[in-house]
Amino acid sequence: MVHHVLLNQNYIILIQKQVVLKCLFLFTSENLRNVAFYLHQNREMIHSIKVAPKETKRKTKFSWTRRHFEPTIYEFDNQNSGIKTNISRKSSILEVFQTFFSEELIEYIVEQTNKSFENNTRGDIHSTKATTVPEIYIFLAINMLMGRIHKISLSEYWCKDKLIRTESFREIMSRDRYTLLLKNLRFYDNNIMNHDPIMKRRYIVEQLRTSFKSAFYPFEKLCIDESLLKFKGRCYFKQFVPSKRSRFGIKSFVLCDIQTGYIQDLLVYSGANMIISEDIPSKSIGKSGQIVMTLLKPYLGRGHTLDPSWIIGIAVPLYFSNYIKTSKPNQRVRNGTKK
C-alpha cells in the first residue's frame, strides 16, 4: 500500500494506524513474543509521536463601541389595561371559569371523550352512555374540589363511613361514573399523529393561552419567570428543580403582569427540542431569547417595561426598548458581574 503523506499530522496518524494494525495481526496469531519484540523495537518511534491538540470551539465575541445613544422610549397608555370580558365582582365562580374554559372547548373534550367510549366499550352497560357538556363541567368541578378536600385515596370521597365521608361527592356523581370518565377522558384526536411531546395536551394549552390573552390586557410592567407545576407521574420531560417548593413537576415559562400577578401567557417546556415559534429564529438570540420574544411579541412597541427575574441573554434587550434588569437576592455579585 502506497501512502502519500503531505502533512506531519497525517504522517503521525498513519504511523499510529500501522502500529495498531500490526499489533492486532500478531495478537490474532497468538505470537505474544513477537508482539513484545515489535513494541520494544519501535519504542522510540512510539514515544516520539505527539498527539495533535483538540480544536476548541470559539465563543462568539461581541464588539463594543462607545457612542452617544438615545433609546426610543415608548409611552404607555394604561387606559386599555384591565379586564376585557363581561365579568365583575358580582360574577359567579362558573362565569369566571367559563371565561377560560369556554363551552366550545368543553364540547371538543366531550367529542374526544365519547370517541374513547366507543373504542373502549367491552360489554359494560355504563360505557354505552355518552357524556355531555354539563357532565364534564361537573367532572372538572369535582377535581377542583378534591384539591381543597384531601383524602387518603380516591374511594374515600364516596365512603359511607360517617366519620370521614363527604356527602357532596355522592350527591353530585357516583363513584363508578367518575372513574369511568377519568379513564376515558381525552383532550386530543387519536387519528392525528405528530412528533409534538405534548400532543395530547397541545389543543387545550393553546386554547388556554388564547383565553388568557383575550380576557385581560396587562399594565405597564411585565415579568418573565419559570414556573413548576407539581407532578410526580410518568413524563419524560418532567423536571427536578431543587430550588422550587414542588421540586418535581412540569416546567413552564410564564409571562405575568406585575401589578396583578395575572398569567398573561405561557410556554410549556417539553425538553431541549420543544416547539416554540417558527416566526422567530433562534440563531441570533438563542433558545432562551426565542422563548422570551415569543411571549413578548404581542406587546412590542406599546410602552411596556420588562422586568425579568429569569436571565434571558444579552441580545434580547436589543429588541425590547423599555428594558430593566433586576438582581435576585440569591445572586452573588463579584467585581461587578453576577455569579
From TrEMBL:
<protein>
    <recommendedName>
        <fullName>PiggyBac transposable element-derived protein domain-containing protein</fullName>
    </recommendedName>
</protein>
<feature type="domain" description="PiggyBac transposable element-derived protein">
    <location>
        <begin position="95"/>
        <end position="306"/>
    </location>
</feature>
<dbReference type="Pfam" id="PF13843">
    <property type="entry name" value="DDE_Tnp_1_7"/>
</dbReference>
<dbReference type="InterPro" id="IPR029526">
    <property type="entry name" value="PGBD"/>
</dbReference>
